[in-house]
Every structure is written in C-alpha cells, then in structure tokens.
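Comment thread on ticket #2218

A.B. wrote:
> Attaching the input chain for the structure job we discussed in standup.
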Amino acid sequence: MNITILSVGKLKEKYIKQGIDEYKKRLSAYAKIQEIEVPDEKAPEHLSTEDMRLVKKKEGERLLAKISADSYVIALAIEGNMKTSEQLAKNIEQLGTYGKSKIAFIIGGSLGLSNDVYARADELLSFSKMTFPHQLMKLVLFEQLYRSFRIMRGEPYHK
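C.D. wrote:
> Ran it. Output below, let me know if you need it in another format.
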C-alpha cells in the first residue's frame, strides 16, 4: 500500500518532527509512506472572507497538483466523519481489498481546505470536533496510521 500525507506549511517544531519521523520509521514495515509539504500562502492575520477564500484556493491548488489521479483522497476536516481506530483500520484494509492501493491524506493550512480540495476528496475524516494546529494533527495522523496497521495485522497496540 502507498500512503501519501500532504500538508500545507513546513513543519517547524522539532519535537513534532521527531515524533513523525519515529512513526514514519515504524510504518515503513507496513506501507510505503510519502510525506509532501506544500508552501503555505503568506497572508496578514486579519483577512476578509474573500481573501481567506483566495488563500485556501492557492494552497488547495498546490495540494491538488501533488495528488495522483488514481489516489483515494481522504481530507482531514472538522466536519468529516469521526471513526474509532478500529474503524479507520478497517477502512484502510477495505480500500486495499478493493484495489485502492494509493491513499492520500490531506491536511489543510491554518485556514482549512479549499472547496476544490473538498470536491476532489473521496472521504472527509475528522479526529475531533475541536480545532488542532495542523502540524500537531499530522503527528496524530501518523500515529493513527501506525495503529491502524497494527490492528489490521492483529498485532498488539495500546488501547
């Protein structure tokens, strides 16, 4: 299975990068993992609704340019469906069973995702109704992917 994690912005916090690197190493036993970061759009702190839409559109175009046409796309979005770890594992396993061996997870920037990214997504996934920094969310996603593969293989994991 080929899994791509696409996100907006460069990871800055060393401790988050260390955590992601650890889970990437662990995941390499189960799947081919690719991490792609696209530049975030520089914008002032206070934006009009139209300016926010334009920032998300530009970031969305960068994300979409990195997705292969045959990828199954799962966008992380607060309004997405929440799943247990077991349900996520089953979802990933079923995608592989039905010939979807390329999965792309998308994490938006600080303003979220563009309408074009939502339109391309095959599925919206939420980890919580709370808002998290997108860099921290990337670490949580890597951990949940690792946990999913452990569950799929019937290997022990912490509950």
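A.B. wrote:
> Thanks. Noting for the ticket: The longest helix spans residues 134-152.
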